[in-house]
Amino acid sequence: MSLFGITTEMLRQGTQLAARRHELLSENVANTETPGYRARDLAFSQELSLAQQVRSLPAGGEVAPMLDARLVDQPDGPTSPDGPAVDVDRQMGRIAKNALYQHAVVQLLNARFRQLRAAINGQG
To answer: Around Cβ 68, how many Cβ atoms within 10 Å?
Structure first.
């Protein structure tokens, strides 16, 4: 079993996936005018249900389930021959949504570490 438990491990995975997704979305924006560039995104099915999964973890569990992520090519659909390969507005919306998700996961991690600190200090 890990020192911090399954909950912390799942939240750690969530922050890693959010960071990787941000990299991909930033690459898409940077390559907006690159001919032949195909936008990519990282889709992970647990994105919206991470908090529900953390709540439903068994108390004595030893192994955190791996969050499932898959690389998606052309998330905006097929590109037109005369237009840009990347829809900047959609990409910026995805970046904003991803930033909110990452912030929420980091806040959950902070709360978890505050609980651990309180337990170590004999508070509460």
So the answer is: 10
Q: Judge whether 98 and 25 are in contact, CB under 8 Å.
A: yes
Structure tokens at 98: 């991803």
What three-state secondary structure class fits 47? Answer: coil
CB atoms under 10 Å from CB of 112, counted, come to 16
What are the extents of the domains in the chain? 5-120
In this predicted structure, the answer to whether residue 4 has a pLDDT above a threshold of 90 is: no
User: What is the sign, positive or negative, of the torsion defined by CA atoms of 49, 50, 52, 53?
Assistant: positive
pLDDT mean across residues, the chain: 80
pTM, rounded to two decimals: 0.76
**How far is 84 from 19, CA to CA, in rounded Å?**
25
Residues paired with residue 70 on neighbouring β-strands, in sequence order: 43
Q: How confident is the model at residue 105 (pLDDT cuts 50, 70, 90)?
A: very high
Check residue 77 and give its pLDDT. 66
Angle 88-120/5-30 helices, nearest 10 degrees? 160
Q: Please state, in angstroms and rounded to a whole number, the distance separating the CA atoms of residues 48 and 82.
A: 36
